[in-house]
Amino acid sequence: MADKTIVTGVDGSDTAMAAAERAATLAQALGARLHVVSAFGKYESETVQIGSDTLILSSERDAEEVAAKVATTLRTAFPGLEVTTAAADGKPGEAMVAAADQLGAELIVVGNKRVQGIAGRVLGSIARDVAAHASCDVYVAHTHERK
Predict the structure, then answer these.
(1) SS3 string of 17-85?
(2) Residue 147 and residue 139: Cα distance in Å, rounded?
(3) Rounded Cα distance, 111 and 43, in Å
(4) Could you say which DSSP state residue 118 is in?
(5) How far does Cα 82 stand from its chain's mean position?
(6) Phi/psi zone of residue 133: left (φ > 0), alpha (ψ -120 to 50 degrees), beta?
(7) CA distance 134 to 56
C-alpha cells in the first residue's frame, strides 16, 4: 500500500478524464495511491417502481458510478496503480480539498477547463478554488485544446 496519496476529481467529462490520466501518471511515477472523487452537489434521490422491481436513483450513486468508471479505466491503463474512489457531497473544488485534507494527500491534480468571464481567464473556476483553499500542493493539468 502506497504511503503517498494524490487526489483528483472527475465528472464524466473528457477534460476531467485528461486530468485523471495526468494524476495517474504522476501517482505511478511517485509510487502514490490515486484517490478519484466525484462530487454530486446536493443529494437528490428518486424511487422508481418497474414491475416488481424497485430502483433507487440518486445523485450520490451517479457520482459513485462516474468515479468507478474512471477508476476502472485508469487501472487498465496503469497496471499496479492503487486507485480508490469516493462520491462527495458539495461543489467539485470543495470536494477535492476536503478529500485531500481527510486523506492527508500530498497533491491534488485538477484540470484547467476554461470558463467564461474574467475570473476564469487564467485558470478554470474549479482549479482556482482548489488552488486557493488546498492545504497541499496543486498540479493544474492542461486539459483543453489550444486555439
Answers:
(1) HHHHHHHHHHHHHHCCEEEEEEECECCCEEEEEECCEEEEEEHHHHHHHHHHHHHHHHHHHCCCCCEEE
(2) 22
(3) 24
(4) G
(5) 15
(6) alpha
(7) 34
**Given strand 107-111, what is the order of strands in its sheet?**
83-88, 33-39, 5-9, 107-111, 137-141
Per-residue pLDDT of the chain (147 residues; tens, 9 = 90+): 569 999 999 999 898 999 999 999 999 999 999 999 999 876 565 666 777 776 655 578 888 999 999 999 999 999 999 999 999 988 899 999 999 999 999 999 999 875 444 444 445 688 889 999 999 999 999 887 655
Is the backbone of residue 82 left (phi > 0), alpha (psi -120 to 50) or beta? beta
CA distance 33 to 73: 15
What is the dihedral sign for C-alpha 13, 14, 15, 16? positive
* Cα(138)–Cα(127) distance, integer angstroms: 9
C-alpha cell at 116: 467564461
